[in-house]
Amino acid sequence: MNDHTNQETQHHGDKPVKRREMSRRQFLSYTLGGAGAFMGAGMLVPMVRFAVDPVLQPKSQAEWVKVVEESKVTNEPKSFKFQVHQVDGWYESSPELEAWIAKGPDGKIFALNPTCKHLGCTVNWNGSPQFQNQYYCPCHGAHYTIDGKALAVAPLPLDEYEVKIENGFVYVGQLGPNKRV
Ligand code: FES
Known about the structure:
Cofactor: [2Fe-2S] cluster
Helix content: 10-25%
Strand order of the largest sheet: 3-14-13-8-7-4
Radius of gyration: 33 Å
Bound molecules: FE2/S2 (inorganic) cluster
Function: Component of the menaquinol:cytochrome c reductase complex. The Rieske protein is a high potential 2Fe-2S protein.
CATH class of the largest domain: Mainly Beta
InterPro entries: Rieske_2Fe-2S, Rieske_2Fe-2S_sf, Rieske_Fe-S_prot, Rieske_Fe-S_prot_C, TAT_signal
Protein name: Menaquinol:cytochrome c reductase iron-sulfur subunit
Family: Belongs to the Rieske iron-sulfur protein family.
Structural class: alpha+beta
CATH topology of the largest domain: Rieske Iron-sulfur Protein
Number of strands: 14
Low-confidence stretches: 1-9
Strand content: 35-45%
Mean pLDDT: 84
């Protein structure tokens, strides 16, 4: 064995075979390097987790929001505003939203979102004299039935809020695809 290179040459048949041995210095540097990397990773993981976690969390389910007394809802849709508390990653906000709330022929109360499904303008009930008893969007003329069914321009019906009645009040919840049409 050659002390300087820590390499030993053996003959195996015709071919020389080199065997490397680890010096004390190499052993120490590998061991300390590995321990350092382990400790570094241990510090890094919580930092990365802190940075990324809120983004990976599923968005919190919408809570029920009390909007109006049940007695104020009629067969004619009316606009009601309400505030929701939203948490998106690190960002918290309380935007004001709007729902058009009406009572269906079955007596059940439903709530539609006024965001036009064409390009996102806001629709109004009876917003055009040309389209009586319909929702109308002033931007490009989309119009919808009382249940939110798209009659022109928009590709989809108006979205619908979940609704529950509790102690004489109408609450709206999660917004989702229209189930009435
Ligand atoms: S955004 Fe409503 S019709 Fe285009």
